[in-house]
Amino acid sequence: MQSISFIGAGRLGTTLAIALHRAGMPVTMIASRNPASAQQAVSGLEGCRAVTPEQAASADLVFLTVPDDEIAATAARLPWRAGQYVVHCSGASEVALLEPAARAGAITGGYHPLQIFSDPQRTLALLPGSTAGIEGPPALEQQLRLLAAKLEMVPMLLPPGSRALYHGGGLFAGTFLLSMLNEAVQAWSAFGISEEQTLRALLPVARGTLETGVAKGPAAALAGPVSRGDVKVVQRHLQALEKLSTEQADFYRQLAQRQLQLARKNGRLQAAQLDALQQLIDNKTPSA
Question: In what order do the strands lie in the sheet with 85-88?
Answer without folding.
Answer: 49-51, 27-31, 4-7, 61-64, 85-88, 107-114, 131-135, 154-157
